[in-house]
Write a structure and sequence with these properties.
Number of domains: 2
Radius of gyration: 53 Å
Shape: rod-shaped
Order of helices and strands: EEHHEEEEEEHHHHHHHHHHHH
Oligomer: single chain
CATH superfamily of the largest domain: Hypothetical protein af1432
Distance between the termini: 43 Å
Strand order of the largest sheet: 4-3-8-7-6-5
CATH class of the largest domain: Mainly Alpha
Structural class: alpha+beta
């Protein structure tokens, strides 16, 4: 994309920047909240498991005291079996006497055996008189609870109860899946919400940006609709008022510039006409050159604006001769080398004059190059071929034709056909071959006119 004459690299707009800022922020917030909720919930699940196991162990200890003291083994076995069956995550229930021998167990095979120590143990907390440890037995991770059995203020045994951690792991995995799914849904909502929010914030800014870009070229201004009542709405309303003022002033300045440009053009036309009038042999020369140049320009397909600039350049082409002394400009004898150099300086002198007026500087390259030759032998710069501005090449043809068909003190004017033959003889050297052919064709197709009519025609 080209803007302001310079190639701009891709740059994200304010909407993408705002979206790119808000979305990671929302994503980070959601991830942080999800992590915190997961940690808090898993802690609560583990705490609930620990407290539940401790409560069951205390209930068993309270129930087993009298039976253990009275030696009612049947009641103890029934208590262990029923407790084991009350919850699927209870792995075993063991009731030991003071010597740490199992007197009741949900598995009969354990009766009478010393209570075995776990493969590994790590304390997890104490709940009243119940101690909870995370242990490993037979390769399984368990939460084992130890509660003393007391009766009439005397310790008579111990209850050992183990809960499996598999249920906790399943609950934690299920919890994590739900939290991830919920977070994904919230993130999706946040994505679209952030996009909508960024759009709501940046749409007025984008409209302002587009309006500012179009303000430089638009002849009329369509106010930006205001649908919000915040600071952006106030900014848009103020911009609408400012734009109307700018366009109004712009129209006035354009009209003043047009008038000033016309004044410059008129002034230079007068100077060019005065210059032609200095020499009775070249009276009307610039006007005739402009006429012929524009006629050729039309045949080449130029539009009206380009023809206007071509006409003006043709009017101005000999403007630099105003600095040429009369004794050189009107001399009837052959010019000396120094006088030739004086005459050849008029293209450069003309550019110096045009440079004084900003509106006329666009014609400088054409005026400077109207005596350049197609093969590079012209003056003042020796440019050639396509380096010579097209308007200068056209004016060069018209200028040479008018000079050859005008009487001079040192020779009579050539006929139209003689002048065209001379032009065609110099195609490829002094003139562009294509333009020379087209110019000759044009002149031959013009309505017949005598020499006096040709010299008096005006635009």
């Amino acid at each position: 994309m080209w803007e302001g004459g310079e190639r701009r690299r891709f740059s994200p707009g304010i909407r993408m920047k705002l979206f790119g800022f808000l979305l990671p922020l929302v994503f980070l917030l959601i991830v942080t909240v999800a992590y915190a909720v997961t940690e808090i919930t898993e802690f609560a699940l583990r705490r609930d498991l620990l407290q539940r196991g401790a409560a069951i162990s205390r209930v068993v200890a309270l129930s087993a005291g009298y039976s253990l003291l009275s030696g009612d083994r049947l009641a103890l076995d029934r208590l262990a079996a029923e407790t084991r069956a009350s919850a699927p995550d209870i792995v075993f229930v063991a009731i030991r006497d003071v010597s740490d021998v199992v007197v009741a167990h949900d598995r009969i095979s354990e009766h009478g055996k010393p209570f075995s120590a776990p493969e590994s143990s790590s304390p997890r907390g104490i709940f009243a008189e119940t101690r909870a440890d995370e242990v490993t037995r037979d390769g399984r991770n368990l939460i084992e609870y130890t509660t003393p059995i007391a009766f009439a203020g005397k310790r008579v045994g111990t209850v050992a109860l183990a809960l499996s951690t598999e249920g906790l792991s399943v609950a934690q995995r299920s919890l994590r899946r739900r939290i991830v799914a919920t977070s994904a849904v919230i993130l999706g909502i946040a994505f679209f919400g952030t996009l909508v929010l960024a759009s709501l914030i940046t749409t007025p800014v984008k409209r302002l940006h587009e309006a500012v870009l179009s303000l430089g070229t638009a002849e009329t201004f369509r106010p930006i609709p205001v649908r919000i009542s915040d600071e952006l709405g106030d900014l848009t309303r103020n911009f609408n008022r400012m734009a109307e003022t700018i366009l109004s002033q712009k129209a006035g300045l354009r009209e003043q510039a047009r008038r000033l440009e016309e004044a410059y053009i008129s002034m230079v036309r007068v100077i060019a006409a005065s210059l032609d009038a200095r020499d009775p042999y070249t009276l009307g020369h610039s006007t005739r050159v402009a006429k012929l140049s524009c006629e050729l320009g039309r045949r080449l397909g130029m539009d009206e604006e380009e023809l206007m600039h071509l006409e003006r350049a043709a009017i101005f082409h000999d403007l630099g001769k105003i600095q040429t002394p009369d004794d050189v400009l009107l001399k009837e004898d052959r010019l000396t080398r120094a006088e030739v150099e004086q005459m050849r300086s008029h293209p450069a002198d003309g550019t110096d004059i045009l440079r004084m007026a900003p509106f006329l500087q666009r014609y400088i390259p054409v005026v400077r190059a109207h005596h350049e030759w197609y093969n590079g032998d012209g003056y003042p710069d020796g440019t050639k071929g396509a380096e010579i501005p097209p308007h200068a090449q056209i004016i060069s043809l018209a200028d040479a034709f008018d000079a050859m068909t005008t009487d001079r003190p040192y020779r009579e004017a050539l006929s139209t056909e003689e002048a065209l033959e001379e032009i065609l003889r110099f195609k490829g050297t002094q003139f562009s071959p294509e333009l020379a052919e087209e110019f000759a064709r044009m002149v031959r197709e013009l309505p017949p006119m005598d020499e006096a009519t040709l010299k008096s025609m005006a635009l």
